[in-house]
């Protein structure tokens, strides 16, 4: 039985089943994975993650670098107790990890909104495919000490086999590094100029140059306004949202902070839906979002060769109940 009577306009709830929790990731069939592998010509691999300990970004001060320390109690650890003379050494460690601090996946439980899914005139906080706040997802309203997601957690992505055809659009080459909300026409102009062929089931990677700004922040010793830098998708453009629906893509990933233009959320009078691309992708369509990826080297290599497609392998942590995860994606060209 569906968890909804009404589904939001522009949503695909139910199309992949009443209990589906991985949305468009269902489009990655074995045939599409084989086609992705056919994009590997050189066997060269690019790591697409920033270090996990990048400095905190002013927009999200509650996300911090990992706190890593040795895993032992006052009596040391088990290995050292069994080896009191210290003739051998074994090291373990532990970490306090903010799962969305650096290169990351957003799970579909990362964003929901109030919507009258029951059709009874009462709007409730709902997530992709009609999963509910409270029963299935508890967010920032005080779930300290408990995992956030009893449904739509990142483990659903971890077990989906995140591997397929990636395509990269170089927005930095097309439009530079000044802040620029990108409309459908802007995106299509870059896609056509760079001869990028976007296919159903693809991971769409958007390179903006924000990764370099982030890496240089520490060296320069000052804050760069990263939230308003480089290109970012303009969720106000309904035709862009429709293009995302029609394109059949499985995920959108970028080296910028949030995939989408943040002047909306930062404006003194934000609109009712503050992150419309997140709303479309995570809430309505089950399209996963990858943020703060490190794309500089891959973009340069592809650009020098007039290529745009590759095999992408990007599983998150299999961390039950998490609404996001660090990821170390690999692009093989
Ligand atoms: C923002 O930082 C606005 O986006 P996300 O929460 O998806 O990281």
Automatic annotation (TrEMBL):
Transmembrane spans: none
Gene3D superfamilies: Putative cyclase
Listed InterPro entries: KFase/CYL, KFase_sf
Domain of life, source organism: Bacteria
Pfam families: Cyclase
Annotated protein name in UniProt: Cyclase family protein
Source species: Sphingobium agri
């Amino acid at each position: 039985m569906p968890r909804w009577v009404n589904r939001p306009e522009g949503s695909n709830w139910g199309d992949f089943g009443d209990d589906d929790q991985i949305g468009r990731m269902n489009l990655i069939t074995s045939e599409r994975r084989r086609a992705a592998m056919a994009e590997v010509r050189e066997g060269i691999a690019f790591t697409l993650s920033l270090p996990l300990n990048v400095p905190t970004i002013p927009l999200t001060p509650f996300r911090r670098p990992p706190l890593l320390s040795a895993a032992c109690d006052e009596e040391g650890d088990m290995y050292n107790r069994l080896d009191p003379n210290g003739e051998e050494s074994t090291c373990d460690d532990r970490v306090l990890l903010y799962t969305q601090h650096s290169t990351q996946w957003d799970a579909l439980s990362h964003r929901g909104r109030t919507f009258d899914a029951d059709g009874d005139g009462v709007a409730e906080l709902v997530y992709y495919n009609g999963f509910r706040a409270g029963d299935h997802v508890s967010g920032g309203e005080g779930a300290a000490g408990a995992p956030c997601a009893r449904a739509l957690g990142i483990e659903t992505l971890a077990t989906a086999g995140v591997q397929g055809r990636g395509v990269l659009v170089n927005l930095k080459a097309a439009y530079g590094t000044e802040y620029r909300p990108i409309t459908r026409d802007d995106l299509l102009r870059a896609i056509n100029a760079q001869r990028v062929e976007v296919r159903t089931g693809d991971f769409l990677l958007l390179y903006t140059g924000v990764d370099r700004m982030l890496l240089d922040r520490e060296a320069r010793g000052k804050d760069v306004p990263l939230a308003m830098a480089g290109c970012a998708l303009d969720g106000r453009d309904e035709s862009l949202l429709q293009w995302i629906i029609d394109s059949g893509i499985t995920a959108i990933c970028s080296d910028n902070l949030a995939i989408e233009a943040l002047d909306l959320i930062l404006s003194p009078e934000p609109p009712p839906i503050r992150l419309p691309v997140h709303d479309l992708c995570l809430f309505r369509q089950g399209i996963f979002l990858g943020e703060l990826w490190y794309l500089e080297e891959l973009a340069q290599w592809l650009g020098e060769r007039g290529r745009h497609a590759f095999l992408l392998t990007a599983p998150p942590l299999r961390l039950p109940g998490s609404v996001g995860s660090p990821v170390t994606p690999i692009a093989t060209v």
